[in-house]
Fold this sequence. Notes:
The chain is of the alpha+beta class. The protein contains seven helices and eleven strands. The strands form three sheets. The protein has a five-stranded mixed β-sheet with strand order 2-9-5-4-3, with helices on one face. Helix 1 (4-18) packs parallel to helix 7 (206-225), helix 4 packs across helix 7 and helix 6 (183-193) crosses helix 7. The structure holds a DNA duplex.
Amino acid sequence: MPELPEVETVVRELGEKIIGKVIDKIEENYRGTVRCNESSLFCLKEKEEDYLSHDSMVKGAKIIGITRRGKYIIITTDTDYEIIVHLRMTGKLINSSPNDSLKHIRALFYFTDSTYLIFNDPRTFGKIYIIPKGKTDMVIRSLGPEPFSQDFSAEYLFNRFSKMKTTIRNALLNQEIVAGLGNIYVCEILYDSGIMFDRSVSALSKAELKKIVKSTREILTEAIKCNGTTISDFRSVDDKTGTFQNFLKVYGKKTCPQGHQISRVKAGGRSSYFCDKCQK
DNA sequence: CCCCGAACCTGACAGC
DNA sequence: TGCTGTCAGGTTCGGG
């Protein structure tokens, strides 16, 4: 469930359920999922000597808030620590008891009221970070502006793009430029903007950048209303699915709404879908 | 310094 | 049926 609208949906739904609960412990079922050592927080593979017990950091912590920054979920507590979750490709937070349908539980929150929060993640890319308050910036420091903030504007993009030599697709996927976009929404945004994915950023006009900013906000707004996009659903019983996949115009499609053939190329290691008639 | 491909993993699916 | 190859919503690392 990985791009901004999906993360936003998780945050909204989870907030109602877990705020006020007190953590008894967080169990790690797959080594490296729960990170609390600052020196190895972001390492792809946690080294044996970096492993640190987090038991004392979370025991008795009361959850007082849950918010989002980019694709990161930030759970605040009444202790000196915050819990930050990144779902990566296949991570899911599920507010239910462990059961046989959840075959890839990588971490498990035990609450004092005998309920659970399950972190299920087949591909094991997802991570849970336990970080002292105030050091949260370590995780999030490099993120660009939120798409809905004033800071994300045509003017901003124009300034940043002037020094960059990459494509608009790669730039929008870069979380340091703007936080929260992923492959699906970038494809949709560029189609809606009428801009070809491989255009060089420094060659884009202010009018085109304005269109990108507008399309980004419109598409994300609609997707959030739909509770996000659900693709290739190997989902479990009680995690709800989004419906924005019904409104996708190019991602995973054969033809665009104008009836033109959709093309697909590998770019930056992943598929880019586009219409060469609608996008220039 | 910037950029891209590989790496980190498991599962689904198409084709033979 | 069972094998092989490809693909998947993300980020980090290392080589060019």
